[in-house]
Amino acid sequence: MRAIWSEHYKRRIWRKIWCALASVQAEVGLVSREQAEDLAKHIDDIDVARSFEIEAEIQHDLMAEVKAFAEQCPVGGGIIHLGATSADIEDNADVIRIK
């Protein structure tokens, strides 16, 4: 149970949601397949410490993870969170964890 509510797990779910979003966006031509694949390649490269550094500057945990994830994705970093709101990502992640 503790693992489900950890920072690492939360951020992994966020990344899975962003990757799913990018995959669908690639299917309909909103982003390139290469961009979506770049995100998928880095889904497990979570650096909570780096995210916390960014969060200390911008005071927003989800956007800090967007920036940390983008730093790792040279091809797809610019499309993370495209068309989504913070609530879209956070609410769905919470539902996954509660389930």
**Whole-number mean pLDDT:** 97
- Specify the CATH homologous superfamily: Fumarase/aspartase (N-terminal domain)
Helical proportion, percent range: 55-70%
Major sheet: none
From the 3D coordinates, which CATH architecture would you assign?
Answer: Orthogonal Bundle
Flag low-confidence runs: none
Structural class: mainly alpha
The number of domains is 1
Report on this model:
With 99 residues, the chain is an all-alpha fold. It has a single domain (3-98), classed as Fumarase/aspartase (N-terminal domain) (Fumarase C, Chain B, domain 1, Orthogonal Bundle), CATH 1.10.275.10. 67% of the residues lie in helices and 0% in strands. The chain contains five helices and no strands. Helix 1 runs antiparallel to helix 2 (33-41), helix 1 packs across helix 5 (86-98) and helix 3 (48-58) crosses helix 4. It is globular, with a radius of gyration of 13 Å. The protein starts with 6 loop residues before the first helix and ends with a helix. The mean pLDDT is 97.
